[in-house]
């Protein structure tokens, strides 16, 4: 009752190791991290701006103030810190 493993054995032999340089992987990771971090902040600021602006009894100036406060706080917490080593 042994299962046929021909397909699995063939896949194991056909496996090729990646050829991307580690510096390229690091650069790609840093770009992904940068875009995720700052893109999330931009999305949160935009959602806050439009939510406060278009809510009942809301307005542009309170929305702009709230968005600027969130943007500054987000920049403060998300900025790059100097390396400790």
UniProtKB/TrEMBL annotation:
Q: In this protein, which residues make up the domain named Cytochrome c oxidase subunit IV bacterial aa3 type? A: 21-54
Record's keyword terms, sorted: Membrane, Transmembrane, Transmembrane helix
Classification via InterPro entries? Cyt-C_aa3_sf, Cyt_c_oxidase_su4_bac-aa3
A Pfam family matched by this chain, by name?
Answer: COX4_pro_2
The source's domain of life comes to Bacteria
The answer to whether keyword Transmembrane applies is yes
Tell me which stretches of the chain form a coiled coil: none
Q: Does the keyword Membrane apply?
A: yes
Give TM regions.
34-54, 60-78
Official protein name in the record: Cytochrome c oxidase subunit IV bacterial aa3 type domain-containing protein
Query: Which organism is the protein's source?
Result: Brevundimonas abyssalis TAR-001
């Amino acid at each position: 009752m042994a299962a046929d493993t021909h397909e699995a054995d063939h896949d194991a032999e056909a496996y090729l190791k990646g050829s991307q340089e580690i510096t390229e992987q690091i650069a790609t990771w840093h770009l992904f991290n940068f875009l995720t971090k700052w893109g999330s902040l931009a999305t949160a600021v935009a959602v806050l701006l439009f939510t406060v602006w278009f809510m009942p009894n809301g307005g542009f100036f309170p929305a702009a103030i709230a968005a600027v406060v969130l943007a500054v706080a987000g920049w403060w917490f998300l900025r790059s810190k100097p390396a400790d080593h």
